[in-house]
Amino acid sequence: MQSNDARIIRGAAIPTAAVGAVAIAIGAVVAGVDGASGVALGVFVAAGFFALGLLSLTKVGERWPDLFFGAAFLIYTTQMGLLLGLLLLLRDASFLDGRAFGAGVLAGTATWLAGQVRAHMTLKVLYVEPESGSASAGGRP
Q1: Dihedral of alpha carbons 92, 28, 81, 46, sign
Q2: Are 103 and 45 in contact (CB under 8 A)?
Q3: In which band, very low, low, confident or very high, does the pLDDT at 6 lie, cut at 50, 70 and 90?
Q4: What is the rounded CA–CA span in Å between residue 58 and residue 28?
Q5: Mean pLDDT of the region 5-15
């Protein structure tokens, strides 16, 4: 993993954890222990899905850079499908508040994506390699 990738993950994970802590407190006040556990599980699921997706996209980019865009589309689509399946599977679960879980997933997803976009926008990646102090090959200084 490159240092840029680690910065992007940190830039998304830290705000997601902060928003998750606030959301857990709100869930506890509004719906009690079931609400707090539902929000916590929702934020954890969203952060886990996106972190694993970003890590897998990093691995694809290292091995097959020409397949990067297609892999990104496939990974994101798969994430959304799996998230939908999990939401449908846990919709009638008695051990957590379904609305709180959905709110946690929504808050975690929105915060992760906003943090990831912000990290990408503030990341300074050189796209031109600077020349060394010697003269160029064309004879010009």
Answers
A1: negative
A2: no
A3: confident
A4: 36
A5: 90
Q: Residue 114 in contact with residue 50, Cβ under 8 Å?
A: no
Q: Of 80, 73, 36, 39, which Cα lies nearest the Cα of 57?
A: 73
CA–CA distance, 15 with 111 (Å, rounded to integer): 7
CB atoms within 10 A of CB 125: 7
pLDDT tens for 55-93 read 998 899 889 889 889 999 999 899 889 988 987 888 788
Q: Which of 21, 37, 17 is nearest to 98 (CA)?
A: 37
CB-based burial of residue 77 (10 Å sphere; 0-12 exposed, 13-18 middle, 19+ buried)?
Answer: exposed
Tell me: the pLDDT tens digits for 33-63? 989 999 999 999 999 999 999 999 889 988 9
The number of C-alpha atoms within 13 Å of 130 and in the hemisphere containing its C-beta is: 4
pTM of the model: 0.78
Say which residue the tokens 């959304």 belong to: 80
| DSSP assignment letter at 65 | G
